[in-house]
Write a structure and sequence with these properties.
about 90 residues; Metal Binding Protein, Guanine Nucleotide Exchange Factor, Chain A; 6-stranded antiparallel sheet; 3-stranded antiparallel sheet; 9 strands; about 0% helix
């Protein structure tokens, strides 16, 4: 699987985890040079608190386009250490 934004591969892995229709990529497969900090957080009743990253490619910013669960609830423990994408990031 690949996560691509602005014709740039942000993450690539054969070991994604599918949850609620989203592919979660292992953190090690994410290219850190395209990741930027975000203050954004959301909450899921069964997964816990999600934190976000923004993406920067060739000077273009895609705010809060990736999310992860640093300390997921037990029901979602299989996605600890994984990152998912949205907001125009093509996963295929």
């Amino acid at each position: 699987m690949k996560a691509v934004w602005k014709d740039t591969v942000i993450a690539e892995s054969d070991a994604t985890v599918m949850v609620e229709g989203n592919h979660y990529f292992p953190e090690a497969s994410v290219k850190r040079e395209f990741i930027s900090f975000s203050n954004h957080k959301t909450s899921c009743p069964w997964k816990g608190q999600a934190s976000y990253y923004s993406l920067i490619v060739n000077g273009d910013l895609n705010p809060d386009a990736a999310w992860y669960y640093a300390d997921p609830k037990e029901a979602a423990s299989n996605i600890k250490g994984y990152v998912a994408f949205w907001k125009g990031v093509k996963v295929s």
